Amino acid sequence: MKVLVVDDDVVSRMVLMHLIDSCGVHDIVEAEDGAAAWEQLEGGLRPALCFCDLRMPRLSGMELLQKIRSDSALDAMPLVLVSSANDHDTVRDAVQAGAAGYIVKPFQPEQVRQHIDACFDMPLLPAEAPQETARRLGIDDERLLAYLTGFQEQVGAAGGQVDGLLARGEPAQARQLLERLHLGCRTLGLQGAAADMAALLQAAVLDGGQLPTVLAALARSVAQQARLLRQQDGD
User: Cα dihedral angle (107, 109, 110, 113), rounded to 10 degrees?
Assistant: First the structure.
């Protein structure tokens, strides 16, 4: 699997490439900014996944994302935006533009692994059609997209939070956090992810080793729902 890393800061780029390599992915291509990345993509580069800094000269991460989403040959490529900004508006804009995820610097290994795992040919989990979810909840598409964005933030942070709680000997609090994610899955019509989360919670002792796989599948399911919603609104 080939992964493209785009960042104008060489230190950040090297750190991220090291984390990707530690996840078992050694075919890594780098670009110093969005313009350099776009040149490679136009030249035929087809990575399975792209991690891209948000703020860069010449072509920003958001601008690169928009170019990719408007190109039928590249539209399906997951792109995870990377930034030191973690305000809700920035994350919302990234998801609405078609980002598969959002990672806040400094990088956390479990967040990187989550997106790597999601690209290893994992099948999409069953989920309710987004329009049915919006109808059931009595909300419009914009509000549903906001819910999905907020949930994506929760999922992205959950791995590190659960690991921290388990390390401190607080399994009850870790279970409560996962129960909230399970409720979110059910509310947003993510039936497959809800079933996986329920199976994880049924164990007498939480399986921390299984958690990254479950969260990766959940993150992919949320991203797919957001993408379907955007495609629906674009029709």
Answer: 110
Domain ranges across the chain = 2-118, 130-234
Residues 6+ apart with CB under 8 A from 69: 75, 97, 98
**The dihedral sign for the CA sequence 87, 89, 93, 99:** positive
| 71-112-61-3 Cα dihedral, nearest 10 degrees | -50
Tell me the residue length of the chain: 235
The predicted-structure confidence for 144-193, as pLDDT tens digits, reads as follows: 988 988 887 788 778 778 878 888 999 999 999 999 999 999 999 999 99
* 51-80 pLDDT tens trace: 999 889 889 999 999 899 888 788 878 899
Give the class (CATH, top level) of 2-118.
Answer: alpha beta
| 44 class by beta-carbon count within 10 Å (0-12 exposed, 13-18 middle, 19+ buried) | exposed
Read off the pLDDT band of 99 (50, 70, 90).
confident
What's the Cα-to-Cα distance from 65 to each of 32, 37, 165, rounded to whole Å?
16, 11, 35
Q: Tens digit of pLDDT for each residue in 15-30?
A: 999 998 887 788 899 9
Please count the other Cβ atoms lying within 10 Å of the Cβ belonging to residue 220. 24
